[in-house]
Amino acid sequence: MSQCATESLHHRASSAAIWTALGAVYLIWGSTYLAIRFTVETAPPFLSAAARFIISGGFLYLWRRMAGDPAPTKIERRNAVIIGIFLLVGGNGGVVWAAQFIPSSLSALLVATVPLWMLLFDAVRPRGDRPTVKALSGILIGFCGAALLIGWSASGATPANFYGAVAVVAASLLWAIGSIYGKILHLPASPLVTTGIEMLAGGVVQIFVAWMFGEFTDFDVAAVSSRSAWAWTYLTVIGPIAFVAYAWLLRNAPIPLVATYSYVNPLVAIVLGYFLGNEIITMRILLAAGLIIGSVVLVSAQKPR
Q1: Are 135 and 276 in contact (CB under 8 A)?
Q2: Which of 223, 242, 264, 303 is the most buried (most CB within 10 A)?
Q3: Element (DSSP H or E) covering residue 22
Q4: Is residue 106 a contact partner of residue 36, using CB atoms and an 8 Å limit?
Q5: pLDDT in tens, 152-191
Q6: CA 166 → CA 95, 148, 172, 240, 281, distances in Å?
Q7: Residue ranges per structural domain of the chain
Q8: What is the pTM of this model?
């Protein structure tokens, strides 16, 4: 085989790997919002999240270390722990807590603002990329859509709806910080080892958060429904596949391309929430969805993919 053909084959294989990883992030993460909502119906949010992250993270780390992946250095381990706390305690933890009070489709739409936060943080960090006027316009439009959703939550039946929406916005901000760190910090060579450390760190810290919220005293295993149990199992077994793919993409694909998951996941979440979760779709939600998803498309299009 000629050198040109070999390079072409390598390019096609790399593209296939990137789009396979994106497909996993699109579909699996889009479905996890509804799975989280089903889980917290009868299971404590932080305690259930801590259990699945420790199980999944421990399995990934031990599997890859036994398979021969190099042990992380002290600095690599520290960086992975920091990123895991931002992503899984601040980011995922806020979404899990809010799932008790707001629909899964609303959570997915608010999380779609992550690329907007990422662009802002990337602009202010040293040697970061400065956004264009078009990108800044997209950020403004997207945050208008988020404000529309928060306003819809504020007019809901209870104040918890509003607090849940605000918690998801804060979680999105923290997830964006963790994502930027995942792009610039020195991490273990193996993405699976990195993911395992991040999950273990996030799970351990969430145990303390669960204790602070009194979940240990209120938890009753017998009260957990079969739907919650199956949803938790799905999140534990299938969910990490998307997280591994996301961690790999952050290190092997441009941020604008990785950010495309944020306007596919909400569409998956809305469809699943409507058909499987009996969630209501209003014109206000559709308008906000158009603003947020359109803004992310506009922002992501500022660079060649």
Answers
A1: no
A2: 242
A3: helix 3-39
A4: no
A5: 776 766 788 899 999 999 999 999 999 888 888 999 998 8
A6: 10, 12, 10, 26, 20
A7: 11-300
A8: 0.85
